[in-house]
Each structure stands twice: as C-alpha cells, then as structure tokens.
Amino acid sequence: MFTLDGKTAIITGASSGIGHAMAELFAKQGAQLVLNARRADLLDDMVANIRDAGGMAVSVPGNITDEAISKQLVEATLDHFGKLDIAVNNAGMVGGIGFDP
Hints:
alpha/beta; Rossmann fold; two-stranded antiparallel sheet; 6 strands
C-alpha cells in the first residue's frame, strides 16, 4: 500500500490543478506538507481543509521565482517539521514569469 507517513513534502503551485491534487493525495497518504503558490487565499483554504481532515500542513505564499520565497519554503519546512523528504516543483511558468491560475 502506498503511504507517505512520516514524510515531509514541499509542493509548489499547490493552489490549483496538479499541485492541488498532489497536495490532497499526499495529505491523505500521511505526508506533512508545506504548500506554496502565489494566491494566499487559496493556499489558506487548502491548509484549513487538510488540517480539518486531520493532516498537517502550512503555507508559504509567494512567487517561487523569488529566491527569498524559495528560502522561506525550506526554512518553514525545517522549522515546522524538522526535515525535508520530498520536493515537488510544480509551479507553472509562462514567459519566464511564475504562473498560477
């Protein structure tokens, strides 16, 4: 059986589409999540839904093309969960600008 119990994952582009679906799946399989996308309101909703279902998740909103946001993602992961096992760089790019519909 597929399980991610005890694993910690960062997922970028997590507010919609494939990133959103991966976050839901990873949470259902027991992963601790640090989610990123540019739309903080959608990320906050997603984190609330994961927590309401008994999962563990935090959000770090912002454009992943910004180096400071990338650093914040890793720092938040280590601060909240103490480790990083999986990184999913799912954020879309259009013309060199981070895209998250």
